[in-house]
Input
Amino acid sequence: MRRPALRALVRSLLFMRHYKAATLASLVCLLASSAGNLAVPRITQLVVDSGILDDRLQAIVIGSLMIFAVTVLRSLFTYLQGVLAAKVSQGVAYDLRNSLYDHIQSLSFSYHDRSQTGQLLTRATSDVDMVRTFISTGVIQIVTTAILIVGSLYLLFITNWRLALHVVPVMLAVFVLFSFMARKGRPIFRGIQEKIAALNTRLEENLVGVRVVKAYTGAVREQRRFDGSSQELYDQSMRAAGVFSLAIPLVFAMSNFGTLVVTWGGGIQILAQRLSIGELVAFQGYLIVAMFPITMLGMIMMSISQASASAERIFEILDAESDVKESPGAAELQPLAEGVRFEGVGFRYFGLGAPVLEDVTFATGAAETIAIVGGTGSGKSTIINLIPRFYDVTEGRISIDGVDIRDVTLESLRRQIGIVLEETTLFGGTIRENIAYGRPDATEEQVTAAARAAAAHEFISSFPNGYHSEVGERGVTLSGGQKQRIAIARALLIEPRVLIFDDSTSNVDYETEVRIRAAIEKLKRDRLSFVIASRMNTVLAADRVVLLHQGRVAGFGTHEELLDNNALYAEIFYAQLSEHESPVRRPATEEVTP
Output
C-alpha cells in the first residue's frame, strides 16, 4: 500500500479524537466481548474433562450455565459496541463532509474551473461513506483481530505448545496471502471510485442539460455515452469481485487445513496420552477463534485498501490551496468613498498560457456607471471577476480608495459588492428566500422594495403564493427574464456600494429592460456600477466606457469622446446601430415608473 494513501487514512482516523468518550466506551465493550470469545473454549474444556468424562452432571450444568451467561453478556457488549462505533463513524463522516463543503466553498474559481462537479460530489458522498464504513467496522475488526489473535495464540501455547507450533505456519501463510491480495486490490478499488465519479459527472451533465438533449434529439447519443461510463464501472467492479471471490474459497481452504493439522496432531497426542479430549476440544475452539480473525485479515486488508483510496481522494481536496488567499492581518474595507483603480493589471488563467488581460489601467469615481464594451474574448467578464477577487490579478493591482483589495478581508470586500451574473443561479426554495439570500434577516417590506426596484414585484404577485412560491430546482419554473429580475433584486437588497451587472438584461424584452434600468438609475445614486454592455442603450446610459480589445484597454472615456476619437468604438457602435430598425438614442432623463 502506498504511503500517501495510508497517511491519508490515518489522518481521517484522527477525526475520531472529537469523539473520545464514545471511542473509549466502544473499546471497553470490544474488550469485554473478545474476553467472552476467549473464555468459552476454556469453559468447554472443563465441561468435557470434569463433567462428561468424569460423569459429573453438576459440572456439566454449571459449565452450561456459564457458557449461557458469557454468551448473553458477550451479545450485550457486542450490541453496545456496535451502537457506539456507529456513533463515532457517523460523527467522523459528518465532520469530513462539513470539512469538504467548507473547503470547497473557500477555494477560488480557478480550482472549480479545473474540477468536475461529479468528482466533487463523489468525494463528498461515496468516498466519505467508504471511510465511515471502515471506521464503523474495519477499525473494530482490526482491534478485535489483534486481541483475538494474541489471546488465542497465548492460550493455544499454554494448552499444548507442540500442537501450537504446527498451526502457526498455517496462520502466517494466511496472513501473507491476504496481504498480497490487498496490495493488488487497492488500485482496483481506487479505480472503482474514479469510475463512480465519472458516471456521476455524466449523469449530472445530462440532468442539467436535459432540455438541450431533447431539443437536439441527442438522447440516443447521450445514452451511448452513459452506457460507456456504466460499462467501465461494471468492468472495474467485476475485477474487484474477482478478488473477493478468490478470497472466500481461500478462507475456507486455510481454515479446513488448520483443522486437519489439529485433528491429526491432536489425535496422535491423545493416543500417546499427552493430551486430553477436553484439551483437544479447547484447542480446536481456540484455533477457530484464532483462524477467524486471521481469515478476516484478508477482508480487513481489502477494507483498508478501499478506505485508504477514498481517504486519499478526500484529502486531495482538503489539501488543495486556494489561489485567492486572505493576507495575514487583512483589514476591514471601509465603505467606498473615492473609487476603484486598475493599475497595470494583467491576468492569466491558472497563471499559465496566453494573457487574458494585459496592462489594464483606468480609474473610476465613487458614484459612476462604467460600461465595459468589447468583442467576445476581450476580457470583459474577467474584469468584473477580479473586482470581488473571484480570481487574483497576475500582474499589477486593483485598489479601492487607494487600498489594494488583496490587503482587505474577503468578507468586507464582497459585502460591499452586489453582483448579477449573465448566468442566473437560483436555489431550491421560495422566491423570497432567493431574493433575501444575501440578507436572510430582511423584512418583508425590504424584500418587496427590492423586487419593485428590479421590476419583479408585478409578476411575483401574479403567482398564487406570491413571494412564497417555490422556484423549483435552479428556478426551472421561471422564465429567463424572471430569474434575472429576481437576481437583480437579490443584489439590490444588500444595498451594496458597488454594483456589477454582467449583461444582466440580456434575457428581458426591451420594455422590461427600460423599467429595470429606470429603477436602477434611482438606486445607482451614490454607488459605483460596472455594467458589461451588449446593448448600446446600456452604453448610452453610462457615465464612462471602458473599451477592451484583445485584453487591453483600447479606449476609456464618455460615449461621445470615444465616438469622436476612437475608430474601433465607432465601428462597434455603428455595427450595433445597423441591427436596429430605428436609431438608438441616449435614454430620456425622465424616470419610468417601475
About this structure: Confidence is low (pLDDT under 50) at residues 580-594.
